[in-house]
Amino acid sequence: MTLAEWCVLGALLLYLLTITSIKWIRFRGFDNARPRDPAFYEDAIAQRALGAHQNGIETFPFFAFAVLLAEFRDSPQRLIDELAVLFLIVRIAYVLTYLGNRPALRSILWSIGFAINLGIFFMPLLKRLLPV
Predict the structure, then answer these.
(1) What is the distance between the alpha carbons of residues 66 and 80, in angstroms, rounded to a whole number?
(2) Tens digit of pLDDT for each residue in 17-74?
(3) DSSP track, 63-131
């Protein structure tokens, strides 16, 4: 497996851990029979954790697809790996700013992560346009 593929797994685990950690910390208030009970997410930190979790679900498919597309189209693996690691670092920072209630910084980090994803996604096109 490539480093970028491990980063895909890391992005998956990150969005799962974002919500799992809140459920674990507040385990007495969590009812597994009603996992989507709005009452569990009434306090601010639980709401932000849920928001970060949902955003992770939203961003994961594009990241995974971009990595696989770039790899299948024989883009430079080292560059794919570096951008995937950078994306994962940005996502970790994004989650921390989400939990820490820093909306402006969170939006900046989201935009950087999206730009990284676009870079990975369009890497096969850039490879064709650049001289060998």
Answers:
(1) 9
(2) 999 888 887 767 777 787 778 888 888 998 999 999 999 999 999 999 999 999 999 8
(3) HHHHHHHHHHTT--HHHHHHHHHHHHHHHHHHHHHHHTT-HHHHHHHHHHHHHHHHHHHTHHHHHHHS-
The total domain count for the chain is: 1
Q: Which structural domain range is residue 118 located in?
A: 3-25+42-127
In a domain, 32, yes or no: no
What's the pLDDT tens digit per position in 108-124?
999 999 999 999 999 99
Which secondary structure element, helix H or strand E, spans residue 16, and what is its range? Answer: helix 3-25
Q: Which residues contact 5 (CB under 8 A, 6 or more apart)?
A: 67, 71
Given a contact cutoff of 8 angstroms between Cβ atoms, the answer to whether 95 and 13 are in contact is no
DSSP assignment, residue 37?
-
pTM of the model: 0.90
33 in a structural domain: no
Question: At 81, which CATH number?
Answer: 1.20.120.550
Flag whether 132 is in a domain: no
